[in-house]
Amino acid sequence: MRSFTWSYLLVLLCTAPAAQAQTVVPLKGQSSQQVQQDINECNSVATNAANSTATSSDAHVGGRVRGAAAGAAAGAVGAQVRGNQHDEVYDRASDDAKQAYRQNRAGETAAAGAAVGGMRQRQDRREDRRTQDQAQSSAHASAYSGCLQGRGYQLNP
What we know:
With 157 residues, this protein is mainly α.
């Protein structure tokens, strides 16, 4: 059985009042007890339908690593370009000093790239959760109304 997440609970809290705010009109003369039983059963069906739309996506992993790699490459290239702009000083430096300068710049920009990559990764995950929550909410509402209509009820907003 899947564990409940906070986003799933939020969807339930948002959709349950909306579903209950609708007026359920029995079309086949059902008793009030039967109406309540059908509402509860259809709510369970709708919850299961919303659960089945849940997908776990690991597509947003490695953002920090990708950002660090891009930052390191940009830093090394930037250091080389700056060194070439100052040929008179850069040419007099030893190869070890040039290498150390490029590595320092690459390290600094790698740290910045990791921060930016992590931020983008978190933004992508939040967007995925919003999209998933909307899909669950839509699936819940559709399954709930379809179940009740199939049992002989009319839903009025």
